[in-house]
């Protein structure tokens, strides 16, 4: 079993400003690790994580696949998270290219059908739309969880870009909770010609957490 | 980190800015060289994804003239090591990237590019 990345360089003060890895992070790490052989065989050249926060997930993927085998790109709307992502990469000897940005916005043009491994642990907690908008606008820690209606407003924005980003054999890993309506997410993505399944499901306190994996539906 | 490999993937995304919005031009760039592990398979695999002219022009802007105008069809070891250096070992720590079309300035601080836009600039 691959250990969780070393986060000992981050302090309590850091975790006031950036999301501290919790059950949703760990289920995603477990899902990725279960797919280790598949991902190593996929041999991705570009891995993109949206909303990297502390940098824990991309550092983990770097350990899983090899730090020089792939370009690890991350975005986060919170500039403080971008800094933590870089330092977590350094702490774990994985060079992470951390970019302060909303979703994939500055990368969308050039990464068209080039992302081999795409990862998003989105803000999935249901809030009012106003709260989700304000959280994104404030560039702070609230943006890591406030998800608007059904916890799906930020995820929904991103899912529409998804078919443009993913490479032919690319994999997309998404974290969700039951209230996000997991079957509706699958149905929505099927409409965008992506096929998916739940690869892990776990209950953590009040949350029913899911890790989903999606791929393009390839027509011969 | 802003290395040239990442710079080669970033475009201006201001609302309505859709032509000549790539590559972004460096301004007052402070470059540091940090050694990175050479991985031949990665460099070979990444080559088709590179916008070659943008990479050559940007490297030259930073004072590195080691890359040829045209991407060679046969990549030998020397070439791959040169490309590795340009893509992965030149770190732009401070400065900015400017859109040649709309003039938007994206600052780089502590090696991190800030690509956020104001509300009215978002498409």
Automatic annotation (TrEMBL), chain A:
Please provide the Gene Ontology terms (biological process) for this protein: methylation
Gene Ontology MF terms: nucleic acid binding; protein methyltransferase activity; S-adenosylmethionine-dependent methyltransferase activity
Q: Which UniProt keywords are present, listed alphabetically? A: Methyltransferase, Nucleus, S-adenosyl-L-methionine, Transferase
The cross-references to Pfam families, in alphabetical order and at most eight, read:
MTS (PF05175)
Query: Mind telling me which InterPro entries this protein's record contains?
Result: DNA_methylase_N6_adenine_CS, Euk-Arch_PrmC-MTase, PrmC-related, SAM-dependent_MTases_sf, Small_mtfrase_dom
| Protein location | Nucleus
Task: Name any GO cellular component annotation.
Answer: nucleus
Q: Where does this protein chiefly localize?
A: nucleus
Q: Please report the stretch or stretches of sequence annotated as the Methyltransferase small domain.
A: 43-136
As for family, the record states: Belongs to the eukaryotic/archaeal PrmC-related family.
UniProt name for this protein = S-adenosyl-L-methionine-dependent methyltransferase
Please name the source species.
Rickenella mellea
TrEMBL record, chain B:
Q: Name one GO biological process term.
A: rRNA (guanine-N7)-methylation
Q: Which domain of life is it from?
A: Eukaryota
The GO terms this record gives for MF are: protein heterodimerization activity
InterPro entries registered for this protein in UniProt: Trm112, Trm112-like
State the name under which the record lists this protein. Trm112p-domain-containing protein
Q: Which Pfam families match?
A: Trm112p
- Native organism is Rickenella mellea
Q: Which family does it belong to?
A: Belongs to the TRM112 family.
Quaternary structure and partners:
Interacts with TRM9.
